[in-house]
Amino acid sequence: MGGDGTPEVAEFAPAELGAELQMSPHAAGRLIGDALDLRHRLPKLWGRILAGEVKPWIGRKTVEATRHLSREVTAAVDARISPWAHSLSWGRLEAIMEAAEIQVDPEGAAVAAEGASKAQGVWLKQSDDHGIKDIYIRTEAPNDIWFDASIERIADGLKALGDASDRDVRRGRAIGVLAQPQRALDLFDQAAALIADPAVSRGDEPSAAQPGEPGTTAGRPAARSDSRPPATLYVHLDQNSFTRDSSGMARFEGVGPVTIDQAR
Asked: Packing angle between helix 56-66 and helix 43-50, nearest 10 degrees?
């Protein structure tokens, strides 16, 4: 029921425990498996839970996040998170676990990263709400960062050109602009010209409903602006990452720990 290194349990144990605790055999089996993982694979965390220092739900979520790992990697995770499990948010604990996995088992982390990269895609929901549809995107972190920055810049451009909608509404409309590259470039030019010269008349600008259409500003072509959004990237590297091979680990702010190959 548990992960690597946990002992076997009698086949009917979940049913018996479930009857005693008034829960389904499936739920009882999960409870047994989590307890086995904590006791045999995460003993430091288990000890703190028994002492009342760490909430049980932290232990169960840690088990769920580490069950696929070997006993050796899980031991490293246990040593890293146990001292902080009572005070850090789950998101920060999860980042510590990911970093431990990369450092202790770089080959396994590389395989996991490759598997995750094959699960990328863009999906449009079939249903719509009065003409509004949902889009789900799963992509590599750099693409996500560029996409978000581009959407934000287009939303700012729409505001500069007179769109008084809320920021989230403008970000939603920005997707339509970004889907038409020339329209996006024209919007960047028009917004840049307007910001540079606030006295420019808006008589020839596109309406708020159709911003970013080709055109001129105040009767003259707008100078082509740099369409790339400004970006500052902070990378945190361990000193050993400069002297070892690709088994090192780096942290990107807003992304979390990644392998050196991913950072490159």
From this structure: 160
* pTM: predicted TM-score of the whole model, two decimal places: 0.60
Same domain? 98 vs 155: no
Q: At what angle do helices 13-21 and 25-41 cross, to 10 degrees?
A: 110
Same domain membership, residue 100 and residue 148: no
Nearest CA-CA partner of 46 in 5, 78, 7, 84: 78
The average pLDDT across 80-94 equals 93
Q: Is residue 79 part of a domain?
A: yes
Task: Please check whether residue 258 lies inside any domain of the structure.
Answer: no
Residue 253 lies in a domain: no
Evaluate the CA torsion angle 124, 125, 129, 131 in order and state its sign: positive
